[in-house]
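Notes from hallway chat w/ T.B., transcribed later so I don't forget. T.B. wanted the structure written out for a chain they're using in a teaching module, and asked if we could keep both sequence and structure tokens in one place. Agreed to drop them here.
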Amino acid sequence: MSRIGQTFTQLKAQGRKALIPFITAGDPAPANTVPLMHALVEGGADILELGVPFSDPMADGPTIQRASERALKHGVGLRDVLGMVAEFRKTNAGTPVVLMGYANPIEAMGWDGFCSAAAAAGVDGVLTVDYPPEESDEFAAKCAAAGLDNIYLLAPTTPLARVAAVAKLARGFIYYVSLKGVTGAATIDMSEVSARLPAIHAATGLPVGVGFGIRDAETARQVAAVADAVVIGSRIVQEIEQSAPEAMLDNVKNFVAGVRAALDN
């Protein structure tokens, strides 16, 4: 069982839900990423989602787009991100790390090279926005062979037949996008999420995480009532963007700790 699977198993036994915060690697500068990863864990994160900077992040709203732009100005690429994960692993061997990004950097490295390098760095899962299940069975097999969990997105518009197709390939957990749009674009509609998740749970034995539109502890608590995990990205990236350098780590840690407390209570 992967670190992701072990984490969900342990949390379920404790009656708790997973908190999965997202940051963009290299934002606001490369030297900040590993300290931010540790701050997220200290705040109560169970799994880390680390964004790979990309010039055309189609699923991301303005906040995460700006984060990618800041990282790209420092020349941060996929190999640099893997190096950051390896550095994080020197002092944290237990917290799962999921890379979230797009196909182009992986294609440039090659599937075999990427899977090998990611596993060696200590990556646990890969969420590639533009690798749909219909076109990624071979990539998913290579990820599985390397011990990487291949994670897929589901949307409010995904038909049930496609949910079943995703469930066959997915590993680790399934990421349900709570709204029609990009990250940080709107307020989550809890009635729609609550209505949609039972069918997804029925189609897969994997945990289901919900992200997009979760901006505060109360919304996270509501989502955790129906999901196995809560994913928060834009709000944390916004905290990084707006914080003074000397306060950034504490601000991020304290925000995550507030969400953790809401989930546990």
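Follow-up for T.B.: Residues 248-264 form the longest helix (17 residues). Might be a good example for the class.
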